[in-house]
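Priority: medium. Attachment 1 of 2:
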């Protein structure tokens, strides 16, 4: 069986679970996928890790194209993703619909979990600075190096978890309250591209065409992404 090596940002992990098996059934090509935050993947690619296809934030993919690691013509934007906030299942859903209510909710939380390496964590760190509450939130933050912040809700370490909605939805036993108000964030765009050094170039191109096709849209939506 043909095999494609894919490195993907965590944001697409949920969608890829079902898309991988559909693609494999249709083509007989197996996807060997590894998921990590974009910043961690960029480092691994620069250190020489081999892959046929990558899914990164658009900025990350553009850096890889600029360095000649990803074929520019192959690049395809797959989905938009908003950063959201979650609580443990069964907890009261605090209000986060405006900057004022979000600020109040963050300050009232016993602990807030966010990620250090993920795009959502970088954004959230800037947001609390902009809102003037960085010292208060940082003092009680549960920082997750990499992985899913919502796991800290289940373990009871945090009251609120901040991450891409598609990543929050990967964890059982939590509920997404909603996105951080759209006027306070620019959605992350996740984009795919074929590596210039791809050993399975044709198979990678087939997967790219499939991921950019209308048939995957319902799966993306269900996983918390906007096509």
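Attachment 2 of 2:
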């Amino acid at each position: 069986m043909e095999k494609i090596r894919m490195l993907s940002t965590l944001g697409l992990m949920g969608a890829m679970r079902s898309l991988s098996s559909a693609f494999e059934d249709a083509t007989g090509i197996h996807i060997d996928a590894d998921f990590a935050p974009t910043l961690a993947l960029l480092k691994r690619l620069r250190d020489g890790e081999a892959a046929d296809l990558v899914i990164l934030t658009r900025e990350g993919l553009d850096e890889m194209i600029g360095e000649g690691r990803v074929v520019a013509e192959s690049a395809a934007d797959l989905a938009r993703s908003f950063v959201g906030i979650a609580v443990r299942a069964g907890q009261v859903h605090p209000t986060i619909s405006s900057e004022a209510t979000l600020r109040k909710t963050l300050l009232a939380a016993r602990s807030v979990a966010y990620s250090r390496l993920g795009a959502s964590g970088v954004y959230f760190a800037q947001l609390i600075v902009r809102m003037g509450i960085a010292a208060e939130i940082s003092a009680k933050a549960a920082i997750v190096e990499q992985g899913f912040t919502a796991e800290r809700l289940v373990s009871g370490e945090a009251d609120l978890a901040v991450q891409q909605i598609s990543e929050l939805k990967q964890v059982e036993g939590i509920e997404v309250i909603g996105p951080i108000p759209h006027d306070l964030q620019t959605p992350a765009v996740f984009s795919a591209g074929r590596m210039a050094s791809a050993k399975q170039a044709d198979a990678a191109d087939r997967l790219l065409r499939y991921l950019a096709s209308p048939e995957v849209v319902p799966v993306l939506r269900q996983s918390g992404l906007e096509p």
